[in-house]
Amino acid sequence: MRHSLAPANLVRSNLVRQLLVALVVLVVAVAVLESTSSFRNSQLATMSYYCIATVGLTLLTGLNGQISLGHGALLAVGAYTAALMLRADEPLAFPLIALTAILVTSLVGLVVGLAAARLRGPYLAGATLALAVALPGLALYFSDTLGGEAGLTVPTPPAPAWFKDLVDTLSGNPVTGTKYVAYLGWVAFAITLFLLLNLTRSHVGRHWRAVRDNDVAAELAGINLGRTRVQAFVVSAACAGLAGAVMALVVRLAAPSAFTLVLSLGLLTAIVIGGLGSMSGAVLGSAVLVFLPGTVTDFATARGLDSTQAAQLAPLIYGVVLVLVILLAPTGLFGTLATAYRRFRSTRSTQKPTPPRSTPPGPVQLKEKA
Fold first, then answer.
1. Can you spell out the DSSP letters for 244-283?
2. Measured between alpha carbons, how far is 297 from 18 in angstroms, rounded to an integer?
3. Residue ranges of the chain with pLDDT lower than 70?
4. Which of these, 167, 150, 3, lies nearest to 83 by C-alpha position?
């Protein structure tokens, strides 16, 4: 049966709908980047690689039910791959470097996924925890190539002339190095979001959810559990590799101290705060992860605390927010907001006055004349 190419049917199709979502995200990012300061541009650049990493982790943990504490190590693989390629005498264009980082990290994810396919729950979390602890240590062992404890400095590629002219024509603002990196990060996130949204609505995504909900029933239905879990791990690792490549550009350094267990736990808490299993929740959790510490520090400094005390207050508030979300909003911030919106719409629809029922037409009765 052929599908109609009418505009209404095209909008209703999943492919076009997810493309529109990605374009809306990109347009909003451009509008915010062009209307904020250079400091906010750097925060938005940071948020872009957090968004890429958390949507990948949401796919693994929220849709497939696998807990990973080692995604910080996968970001390190992508970051070091990008750093080595950007430090070449004649570096390739960043899209090719990002694709290489994705490929290398996917191979690492394939090896880890094959080993972890038979593990579940705390055993899988322990295996990925070992990955998070051990993998950044390779930079110390291969210090001649990977820079040891000091790491590798990452040069920022210059913005092409056509891009500067385009931004200058549209907004009249100059393109700084920070803004160009932020643009690269948000374009990478929009492409990642488009691909993942379509993937989760395909039969592959349905298999992931079936394995998460009931692996016994899924196996009885003919789904290969091991292959499904490895697929989810590889796709999530590919997202982590891309996030690592963007992170190397934003931070301009690839060092072991940036990929500790704290990074892995931060990504995991971001998807819990935003809403486990939701791409929108992953974005919301990334925003909390990036903007909450700075907001708390500014608030504490304005109330008379010194900079050290204000910096120590930020992790405390972040932990309190995490506990409150777990206790009061178990579906995360986005899940709670979505539920409240649905209740609001349901309440409004029930309060609408019902139109009077019209009397159905019946047979006309003629009065008898006296």
1. HHHHHHHHSEE-GGGSSHHHHHHHHHHHHHH-TT-HHHHH
2. 37
3. 1-12, 121, 352-370
4. 150
DSSP state of 222: T
C-alpha angle 38/100/105, rounded to 5°? 95
Sign of CA dihedral 312, 315, 320, 321: positive
Structure tokens at 55: 């949507």
Its pTM stands at: 0.86
Mind listing the pLDDT tens digit for each residue in 140-191? 888 888 888 888 999 988 888 898 888 888 888 888 889 999 999 999 999 9
| Phi and psi torsions of 5, nearest 5° | -95, 20
CA distance 242 to 327: 33
Rg for the chain (alpha carbons), in Å? 25
Per DSSP, 142 falls in state: T
Structure tokens given for 337:
């907001």
Alpha-helical (H) ranges within 61-202 are 71-86, 94-116, 121-134, 138-141, 143-146, 161-171, 177-200
Question: 254 phi and psi, to 5 degrees?
Answer: -120, 100
Report CA torsion sign: 245, 251, 257, 259. negative
Give 148's DSSP letter: G
By CB neighbour count within 10 A (0-12 exposed, 13-18 middle, 19+ buried), where does 267 fall?
buried
Q: Which helix (H) or strand (E) holds 317?
A: helix 307-328
Give me the amino acid identity at 193. L
| Both tokens assigned to 107 | 């191979």
